[in-house]
Amino acid sequence: MPLAAGFVGILPALGLLNEERDGVPPLHLSWVGAVGWSCAVAFFGVFLSPPIRKQVIVEEQLAFPSGTATAQLISVLHQIPPPDTSIKPRPNLGYRAVHTEEVDDVPTPTSVVEHADVSDPQEQSEAQEEGWGALLWSFVASGAMTLMAYFFPVVFSIPLFGSYLADNWLWTFTPSLSYIGQGIIMGFPTTLSMNLGMLVGWGILSPIAKHAGWAPGAVGDMSTGARGWILWVSLAIMCADSIVSLMPVIAETAYSRLYLGGLSRAGGVAEDKEMETEDRLVPTKWVVWGLGASVVMGTTLVWLVFGDEGIKPWATLIGYVMGGLLSVLGVRALGETDLNPVSGLGKISQLFFAWIQPGNVIANIIAGGVAEAGAQQAGDLMQDLKTGHLIHASPRAQFFGQLIGSSLSIVITATAYSLYNRAYEIPGPSFPAPTAYVWLGLARLLRDGQLPEKSSEFMIIFALMFSVVAALKAYAARRGEWWAKWVPSGVAFAIGFLNTPAFSLARLVGGIVEHVYYARRGREKGGIRLVIIASGFVLGEGVVSIASLVLTTWGVGAASCWGCGHGLCAGCPT
After folding, report:
1. Between helices 342-356 and 434-448, what is the axis angle to 10°?
2. Other C-beta atoms within 10 Å of 281: how many?
3. What CA–CA distance (Å, rounded) separates 526 from 134?
4. pTM above 0.85, yes or no
5. 418-435 pLDDT per residue, tens
């Protein structure tokens, strides 16, 4: 829900509005408003997921690597037979069969667990004990480090490259075990792409823009500084990469649905590959009524929360329609690559709404957020449904669970966001929320047509460059070339621009650990231990951060700000 409802992007973007520049004051939702907005986007993706599941999981049998990895992990930890993860070829679409022996070439968490042989009961019991033990100690270690960083903030803001680079160019290092764990899960190729982007953005373009006078403000200023200047180059890369990457998905969807679907209809009734009985599936009438009710309720709630000045009801309705269409593309891309291009899909929706409701920055952000929420939620739920499909869970039971989870997350997410907003500045040092600047920046660009000096030239150059790179990567991946994973990911490269170096460097450490570990031990012997440790790292920091929030709310601050002279430590004076 935090991602689908835009609590890390859309709502902070509305809080960055400037009355002098945008004609409207900053918009900060109350707790009731946050609950209303969450309700508006919480259920559309849930009701959209059953028909999409039928197509991409049952009929086309797309991989969904993270969902497959989760199924493998569950099978080990809960002593159930390992799932059959072999994927049958889709005829006439240019794909080859992908079996478990070949997953080494895919830079996803699946490769970590694909070869775990747990068929022997004794081995399975030992794997379960080792798994829980590794999860526990990694959780405790990450939590302890997070708590230490709260009282001594310099722990997560080390001026590794010297005080000058930290003070003037924001080059610090955050040895967060959660970041390292995320890097392990993301894999070395993805983290490498992210850090290449960080080097180009923060090591080359940022100094050029600063010294040439194109970005005269402080480096970290998102309006006049180098960080705001390279944001536009990042946006161009993301849009180019997302559009080019989606082209083969669109072509294959049209080909399979129109041409092959026509052949199937001409040849008689197509074979139904659904293995579940009717009592375990979600009835079609539930889907139809649920989609209708969620759209009507959502349109009404958006109007009540933001009013006519924010967005017209007809624009919200179009946002839901776009969300349904874009979610199909996003889910297919996610199933094949393990990357949901929601950032690019959100930008497409912003471009569309700039055309149908020009000049309204709030409407552009909100309508784009409604469309992106459907794609985000459908993708997340499809990974869950893939896991359930592999371990033979009931789709109907999962559907009920998703409804219950979405309902509870409305209150939990709105409450947590309100508490964090009171305790921290969002965006701010602790929670920079870089995507908020992307949403607001594009909305302003589409309204005003003004870019920072010389940024347009670099946007065109990098957009063209990564259009070629994305086309090459898509071509190589669809031919099953071993080197496809080493072609830089445009989205990951652009994320290196968006975030400060500290964000990318720790993830690179995790990526290197993952690469070295499996290079030395091999995928088969490596098993799932490293993924379990990485999961514990992520969970430990996430849980203890709640305790940090409580301490901040109670007025308990840092014990010492020693070493924080560079002004980049969360909780210490800047």
Report:
1. 30
2. 17
3. 14
4. no
5. 887 777 777 766 677 777
